[in-house]
Amino acid sequence: WNGTAPIPVWTGSPRFRLSRGGNRQVNAAVHRIAITQWRGVGPGRDYMLRRIQRGDTKTSAIRALRRHLSDEVFRRLRLDQQQQVSASTTQPAIAA
User: Fold this and answer.
1) Neighbour count for residue 69 (Cβ, 10 Å)
2) E strands within 31-86?
3) For residue 95, is it within any domain?
């Protein structure tokens, strides 16, 4: 959707490469959110620090945070869509 999903590289290396595809505007927005969360205090910074303590580089930790944020945004969009569908099916039609 926005290019944050890793794509396997079949060279025998356990590393992944990033897809350059996806919606570039959404990808840029997710990147800005990740940088803002990294600079502030809260769950985004805590996630980054955990990744760095595990041995990730700062770049890799930002990439992981972007993926984490992307998954969260997608989950919330789907939840909102499901709530709208269920609300529209439970409300009776108003006759004009």
Assistant:
1) 19
2) none
3) no
